[in-house]
Amino acid sequence: MIFDDRALDLGEGPIWHPERGQFFWFDIRSGHLLSRDGTGPLMWEIGENASVAGWVDRDTFLIGTETRLLTLNLTTGAQTDIAPLEADNPITRSNDGRADPFGGLWIGTMGKTMLPNAGAFYRYYRGEIRKLYDGITVPNACCFAANGDFAHFADTTAKIVMRVALDSHGWPKGNPEPWLDLRAEGLLPDGAVLDADGNFWCALYKSGRVAAYDKNANFVRSLDFPASQTTCPAFGGPDLTTLYCTSATQKLPPEDLAANPDHGRTFALHDVAKGLPETKVIL
User: Fold this and answer.
1) What is the pLDDT of residues 59-118, one digit of tens each?
2) How far apart are CA 78 and CA 74, in angstroms?
3) Residue 254 backbone phi and psi in degrees, to 5
4) What is the extent of the structural domain holding 103?
């Protein structure tokens, strides 16, 4: 189950690069992009809080950070600024995000100290970055129907996953509507991804699991992990049937960390469900 034993403060942004056949993820507050290959663990220094990546080509990611969108060359490590992202707001950083089926990249921002309503959701698409929603405290659960008909997203603190229709270019049309209400169970929706059957797989923060819900938001099943603060799932592997999941150690008391060294590690479960390939981002 353990894919990588580095215990991270805040693991996030997992992505399987389909052209490289390689899994990547972030430790947000250390500003590191992480991976593994046949030689062992790999790391790229971003230089500031970083949390979300979309693949542009075999060697290039578009990455969202606390101040900007940048491209990172995985071979040379070279960075190129693409667009500012709340660069004039030092209290915020990026959080959850994902590429949509149109080649755009959604990025959520939030207060570094979880200041209520300080964040927003943005979309970068073909050279334009546009704010979609503001008043967000902890942006999460960003994922999309394979045909591009709709997007899911959530403010974790509200405990409700929203759904909004998308137009022919991937921009939201109409108002978002509540789709999955977890308030009665007190569950915290973190990162999420859809599988090839349209099931919604969501990390439930502080619950140590990833839960699957069908197209009608009915609970299907859940997978338990040996880390209480599961943060985000992603499908990968050669046939996209491996479910990866990041986790976090942030704010856990020292006695919990001492008792369970698996907090903050990154996990992989095989033969879970058939995932969808991550879409290429169009700059």
Assistant:
1) 999 999 999 999 999 999 999 999 999 999 999 999 999 999 999 999 999 999 999 999
2) 8
3) -55, -35
4) 2-269
The model's pTM: 0.97
Instruction: Tell whether 77 is covered by a domain.
Output: yes
Q: What are 232-268's pLDDT values in tens digits? A: 999 999 999 999 999 999 999 999 999 999 999 999 9
Residue 93 CA to residue 187 CA, distance in Å, equals 24
Instruction: Exactly one of 81, 190, 239, 271 is catalytic; name it.
Output: 190
Given a contact cutoff of 8 angstroms between Cβ atoms, the answer to whether 96 and 141 are in contact is yes
Q: Is residue 152 part of a domain?
A: yes
Q: Is 190 one of the annotated active-site residues of the chain?
A: yes
> In angstroms, rounded to a whole number, what is the distance separating the alpha carbons of residues 275 and 188?
23
Element (H, E) at 254: helix 254-259
Residue at 35 is within a domain: yes
Q: Are 228 and 207 in contact (CB under 8 A)?
A: yes
